[in-house]
Amino acid sequence: MKIRAITLNNVRRFTDPAQVVGIGDGINVLSEPNEHGKSTLFDAIQALFFKPYGSRDKDVAALRPHAGGAPEVTIEVETDKGRFVVFKRWFQKPLATVHRNSTLIAQADEAEAWIAQLLGGDAGGPS
């Protein structure tokens, strides 16, 4: 799996959509001064892959902006089967979806199962 793009909306300091696009093969470097959201970006990636869309645990709650709102994370991934867009929203109207070529292929618990399979069947998180 290769991550190709990331979008955060209502995630900590990013109350408006923030994107990282153009992620290529090989090593990619994310370089910004302190307090520009690098850790937020990686926490959001981890949440998308390892926190169920219905979760309200402290790690997911920590993604909420101070003004409130429902954290949303979208990641475009490339696999040997093509490109997919994986989306999760927590708290208000929680949702998880997977799209391929703009076609919905999984949602809710089926999307969680798709993510687990993408990660090798164990969505227990990094060790």
UniProtKB/TrEMBL annotation:
It holds the Pfam family AAA_23. Residues 6-83 form the Rad50/SbcC-type AAA domain. One of its GO terms (molecular function) is ATP hydrolysis activity. One of its GO terms (biological process) is double-strand break repair. This is Rad50/SbcC-type AAA domain-containing protein. InterPro entries: P-loop_NTPase, Rad50/SbcC_AAA. PANTHER family: DOUBLE-STRAND BREAK REPAIR RAD50 ATPASE, PUTATIVE-RELATED.
